[in-house]
């Protein structure tokens, strides 16, 4: 009997390395908006596994050699990948339809082959069902080595290719001018995704391996707008999910490895979705509420300043709560002051936006930004003087002031 | 001949055809709306749905499980929208996030709970058991007219028929708004068509079809039938009504040819057992798509 | 022209729309005159299309009221027709030209109403009005950009509306189409219909339209072409982005009175 503890450790290391590689690759797939391609890749492995088994049995072998089965998986998934590409290029179908068609048909054919294997009597012993959901229970040490080494190799390949992949996923056309071939880089990316899928089959299973390519990348996206950071973070999240998931699943029975790894990743995703600064849901809701508040407040004040009636209930409530209008809708003295300020701000903007030489500054206008946060006090004075004079003499000064500002 | 065919082959054949139709019809609109993979997502979340349905009610009867599955499908669609809209994640990735997570949760629940006494396992969820839906009380074609025997038709057949009628009613009644909003959503809104609820209704109807079909034939057929027949029909015509007609034809053809090949193919090759009918139906639908993609009269799109 | 006793076909007050956390349109007020042809103009990203879409409820608005013929848009839908920007639909959709035009009859036909001979005749007539009757049976994706635009105009005609909203009807179309479209719009105007169109080509504004609404996030100017389509207003809306050559062409001599050829000046 093999030492389970040692095996479990090996599997955890392998799953961790695999997770890092899957996270990084997944990030690039996500940048290229091709996350679900991995779903086609993974489902398309099934016929290959079954055919490899049948071939190995026909050649007199045992049929369960992991390297052999994974080679079969890689070949059939490569065929699936090529077919998705072909359908996309040669027919009117979109990539989503091509992915769906290939994944369901390959998977269906794989199921047919699995029943064939049962029919010819090699049946239950084959254990090929474990490829559906992944299983590390009773794994051979050699298999654990395959996974650990495979995960490490995939990770190394990712690190080597990270720069071209970044360039291509950011701007394929520009990358082409830099001597890269986007088509080839894409192919390398897909091959890596395929490698990660195949290596992960035994651990995570073909239905869920796609999660390792999607969840960490999407989770990481919440935390940064820089592609390298996202890829790195996705690697970390994937690695943690893989390693922690594998360890948890080895602690007790009834905790299948694949689902546990996916659920760890899903937990990290949920935390990111809710709590991430700026892109997170919580931050988004707060920002949206604040923004709505600002818009209505500003519009209400401008309406007051122009003597228009305010119709919208929310605006009225805001103004009333801030003590700017009385219950009957008439402005309080503070309301009048605030309204006058808002109106002055709007007038200043109008003048500034009419001046071609101030175009850069005027571009800051969005109806909400107070002008004194954009102009220096010198520029403001100049602007007010212009408003009084309505003459052309101030152009040069504004231009000079603008230059000074952009230097500072 | 009828003596064996009617009890053993007719019900599964019919159920296969009904399931294929119920998925392929809404599949046309999903395909045109670039939501083809919704079927994939729904069929994955059916598993956690039935497990939860079973755990909540403690029975393995069909209705709680189907309700659970339908609820899971709706929850999944809502979550996908949430992740997509609120999290600003592109739809494909949002879908991937949601269905893998829910599927993983379903598998874990299944492993953790004691379901050994009910027929509930992942493999069954994936490829169903079309071959076992037999009608033992039938003795031949005459049984089709015999009320006593008809009572014992497999309940899946009745359920699937009801669901297919529902799907056809939905598409028939709402054909115009569905077509307009799929073609030009902004214009549909200006006409007063409630585009959001309509899209959601389409997904829910698809989910109901998927759940019913899943119960009878497993989720492989569901995914394949949502996509392959409509996709193949897409290569045949430039008119929506005609496309839907072709897709129905392809769906039925896949079901019949697939079932026959699975049941009799191995015998012809000299083996004694049959192979998975669900898998074979999916395979045949893929072959039909392949032929249409290579020879269909309008296989290439015209738009830029 | 400015018959104030008639209700404005479209009246918008305090409309703000945002994508994310910056307003695309801020506090816009617009009043469209009945029977007028009004152009919405402004630089790229000024919120012209956004304004139109928010009015129609295609995109949500953050604040603001929209009145169509003095009532809510919902109750007046049947009187409004919309021609979207060409890029916004799925050109590969399995549908023929005539089917697209018949979509304009949706409110008339309802869910299940049968398409009868009179409906087909109406759709065919709308197609011939835009000079596309020979293309009725073509798949919509087979047409050129200009032909597609004309089909969409025909669909709007089929709606039999009083107010026509068009989003960049002349963008990327050939000269023949531009001419055909403007003929149709002018004939609509002659029938007393009201037209509001997002427009990007400043040089054709005085020829095609009688009213303008100039916007750059907020409204800059509104009124007849004579009143509002001024060098000053354009300068304020476009800032430095306006080519001086175009300005010279539109306003040939800055100081002396504009020549009689410009606008509807004194004859």
Describe what you observe in this structure.
The complex is a heterotrimer of chains A (408), B (304) and C (267). Chain A is an all-alpha fold. Chain A folds into two domains: 4-270, ABC transporter involved in vitamin B12 uptake, BtuC (Orthogonal Bundle), CATH 1.10.3470; 282-407, no CATH class. Chain A contains 18 helices and no strands. In chain A, helix 3 crosses helix 4 and helix 10 packs across helix 11 (227-251). Chain B is an all-alpha fold and 304 residues long. Chain B has one domain (2-135, 153-295): ABC transporter involved in vitamin B12 uptake, BtuC (Orthogonal Bundle), CATH 1.10.3470.10. Chain B is 75% helix and 0% strand. Chain C has 267 residues and is of the alpha/beta class. Chain C has a single domain (10-250), classed as Rossmann fold. A six-stranded mixed β-sheet of chain C has the order 6-7-8-3-9-10, with helices on both faces. In chain C, helix 4 (117-129) packs across helix 5 and helix 5 (145-158) runs parallel beside helix 6. Chain C is globular. Chain C starts with 9 loop residues before the first strand and ends in a 17-residue tail after the last helix. Residues 1-5 and 254-267 of chain C have low confidence and may be disordered. Chains A and B meet through helix 5, helix 10 and helix 12 of A and helix 2, helix 4, helix 5, helix 11 and helix 13 of B.
